[in-house]
Every structure is written in C-alpha cells, then in structure tokens.
Specification:
This protein is α/β, with parallel strands linked by helices and 405 residues long. It folds into 2 domains: 198 residues, Type I PLP-dependent aspartate aminotransferase-like (Major domain) (Aspartate Aminotransferase, domain 2), CATH 3.40.640.10; 138 residues, Aspartate Aminotransferase, domain 1. Helices cover 39% and strands 14% of the residues. It is built from 15 helices and 12 strands. The strands form 2 sheets. Strands 1-7-6-5-4-2-3 form a 7-stranded mixed beta sheet, sandwiched between helices. Helix 6 runs parallel beside helix 7. The structure holds pyridoxal-5'-phosphate. The site of pyridoxal-5'-phosphate has 14 residues, from helix 4. The site of pyridoxal-5'-phosphate (PLP) has 14 residues, from helix 4.
C-alpha cells in the first residue's frame, strides 16, 4: 500500500489490530460504539442475524453482556438486560408488560418516589391507570386485584424507608390469579438475600447503582425476566427507548458484583448488631429492622439468617430538628441520598425521598420527621456504634438513659 500521510496515520495507525488469542480473565471494557467486518457480505450476515455478533453498542456490547449474564445467573432468570439506571430498568420492565391505554397497574403504596412519578406522570400520560394498595395487607391486594383486573402488580422486596418485607410468593399468586404480570423491584434485597423469580415474580428489577455496584461510583439498572418470551420486549426497550448502560458503568458494576456476597454478609451482620443496640436506647422511639417483624415474612423471603443491611430509626424527639442534629453530628457515617455502599450512610426520608408528599400523607405512612434510615456498610461495627452513639447523645442527650435501667 502506498505510503500514507501523517494526518491519515493519526487517525488509523495501530487501530483494528486482531484481538489477542488469550482469553482475558476479566471482561475488558469494549469502549467502541461500532464494529467493522471483513466484507459487506459478512456484515450483512450479522445484520440478518445469521451470524451472531455485535453491530452497534446500543444493540449490545460484550462488557454490558457480561454484566447482564452475571445478573441473569444470580437471579435465576431466562433473560437479563441492562439499562442506564434503575429507573430505565423499571421503565423497560413496564414496557415489556403489554400496557396500553386503559390498563391498570396495581402498585405498592410504599414504592420508591420516582417509581410513582414514572407510573403516574409518564405511563399515566399514555392512559395507563395506577392504583395503590398496602402490599403488606394481602386481603387488600387480592380484593383490589379482583376488582381492578390489573395488567401488572408492582412491589419492592424490602420497602423504603420502613423496611417491610414483601411476601413475594403470596403476591405472585394473586397477580397470576387475575392474569397479571408481577414486577418486583429488588434493589434493597439483592439476589444474595432474595430471588423473587424463584418465588413466582415475572420480572425483577434492580437499581445497580446501589448494592450491586456498592461503591457509589456508577449508575445503572438491570431487568431480569423469568420467561424467555420477554426477551424481545426487554431488548427493544434497550434498543429503541435507548437508555443503554455505559460500558464504563457496566465494568464498575461487574467488579462490584463479584464481592456482593462478602459485602452483604458483613453489612447484614453489622446492621443486626446496630439494630439490637439501638433498640435498647431510651432516646429511640422505634427501630425498624426486618428481623424484628413478627409476621414471619422476613424468614420466608430473605435468605436465612439475614435481615438485610438497612435499619431505620425514629428518634424519641420525633422532630426534623433532632433528626438533622443527629445527622449533622455524625463524624464517620456519611450523610447521603443513597444506600447500599460499602460505607455507612444516613438519609432523612421526610426531606429527601418523600419530600414531595404532604406531611399528612407522610405521617399516614409512618414517615415522620424524626425518622432516619441507616444503610449499614462494612466498617468495623464498634466504630459505627461509637459514632452513632455520640451523635445521638449530642442530638437528644437529655432523653438518654438505658431502657432497662
Ligand atoms: C428501590 C429503588 N428503585 C429504583 C431506584 C432508582 O434507581 P436509579 O437511581 O439507579 O435510577 C432507586 C433509587 O434510589 C430505589 O431506591
């Protein structure tokens, strides 16, 4: 070939060399948007589907595929697709549920706030009607399902911020009795603590931004379906709605995923110790921790002996002032608007995730001003306890005396 000019070499030199024969032990970051083939005929076979390969990263990418496959295996599903965020994954799961104008979604009244907004504002604009029910009251769910004949039921394995565990198998049975699909947002449980598809759910979604990634450095989401028939709809939500997961995020989340079991074991153990100690303090009105519930659902749904890695407390001085003073006094625990990271974080639901609700509505849900949610990390538990103790003493020292004194 004729000698090329330096301008051309700047563009092409070193590129498109054959890939190594050795198999990389961890999936590389394929940061390319497109592919070229040896001939137009070969490209045509890829486009037609005769030759299974990659075309364009919005349609599929090896780095993203590795994460999808890992989460598919972990959730014991038939197909998984990854998206740009947990919200995009939920959007895709709803798109895969045959909703059209006039269809009804029966949703848990304890859903994450943005999930309500997605249902009411985005799907609502296309005529989908959302009705709410208390998913911890199975009679109410059954009665509403029978009356409304919903196309979809949508719940969360562990609710936010009161950490109620959903009886996934019972709600799946209700959904199927009226021919509805059951979507479960299992962000707070992760496949380590619960596999909703094994309990009868049809699609499980995750905000991978939380525990799956675990280091507060990536935004992503995954939807996994039990039935391969959902593959086409989940894939077209990815290709056509276009909220694809970035390869960089996919790589971070895959790296996080490898240590999920280790992280969660430690996080759950820390959370349980912390919850037990907090329950003994006289300046704490209430400790919400799934293992403290007496209805047996936690043991039925979450992997034994774990109770999750989140704890919510209501201060005896149930005011915003006391909650914020407690949070501002923390020296180790981080104030954050998220959860599921390796470090311990606190959030104030009334002024963050649930701030759009009226105070009356928040109170009716049990989300009072003195409620603080703690996402417990992997630090040494004694350091966490010391920090939380000193901050509680500062916030409401006057109420402090041992409960059993
Ligand atoms: C339960 C739950 N589902 C979905 C989401 C949305 O996830 P993302 O922020 O990755 O879109 C969140 C975010 O906080 C969440 O807590």
């Amino acid at each position: 070939m004729a000698k090329r000019s330096i301008e051309t070499d700047f563009v092409h030199a070193g590129e498109r060399a054959p890939l190594p024969q050795g198999l990389p032990n961890s999936t590389p970051i394929f940061a390319n948007s497109t592919y070229s083939y040896a001939s137009m005929e070969e490209a045509d076979r890829v486009f037609s589907g005769d030759l299974k390969d990659y075309i364009y990263t919005r349609y599929g990418n090896p780095t993203v595929d590795a994460l999808q496959e890992a989460v598919r295996v972990l959730e014991n599903g038939a197909v998984a697709r990854a998206y740009a965020s947990g919200m995009a994954a939920l959007h895709a799961a709803l798109l895969a549920s045959d909703l059209n104008s006039g269809s009804v979604v029966l949703a848990s009244r304890d859903l994450y706030g943005a999930s309500f907004d997605l249902l009411f504002n985005i799907f609502g604009a296309f005529g989908v009607r959302t009705q709410l029910a208390d998913f911890s009251d199975l009679e109410e769910v059954k009665a509403k399902a029978d009356e409304l004949k919903p196309r979809v039921l949508l719940g969360e394995t562990i609710s936010n911020p009161l950490l109620k565990v959903l009886d996934v198998a019972a709600v799946a049975e209700i959904a199927h009795s009226v021919g509805a699909k059951f979507i479960v947002d299992s962000t707070f449980a992760t496949p380590f603590l619960c596999r909703p598809l094994d309990l009868g759910a049809d699609i499980v979604v995750h905000s991978a931004t939380k525990y799956l990634g675990g280091s507060a450095d990536a935004i992503g989401g995954v939807a996994v379906a039990r039935d391969i028939a959902d593959e086409a709809a989940l894939t077209s939500a990815m290709k056509l709605a276009g909220g694809v997961l970035s390869v960089w995020e996919a790589h971070s989340i895959s790296r996080g995923l490898r240590t999920l079991a280790l992280r969660l074991e430690k996080q759950c153990s820390n959370a349980e110790k912390l919850a037990a100690l907090l329950a003994k303090r006289s300046d704490i009105k209430r400790v919400h921790y799934p293992k403290f519930a007496t209805d047996g659902v936690t043991q039925k749904v979450l992997r034994e002996p774990f109770g999750g890695a989140l704890v919510a407390i209501v201060l005896e001085d149930d005011t915003r002032e006391a909650a914020w003073k407690f949070m501002n006094s923390l020296e180790l625990v981080v104030r954050a608007t998220t959860l599921g990271d390796v470090f311990t974080t606190v959030s104030h639901s009334a002024s963050s995730s649930h701030r759009e609700l009226t105070e009356k509505r928040r109170n009716s849900l049990g989300i009072t001003e003195g409620l603080v949610r703690i996402s417990v990390g992997i630090e040494a538990v004694e350091d966490l306890i010391a920090d939380i103790d000193q901050a509680l003493d500062k916030a409401q020292g006057k109420n402090r005396k041992a409960k059993n004194a």
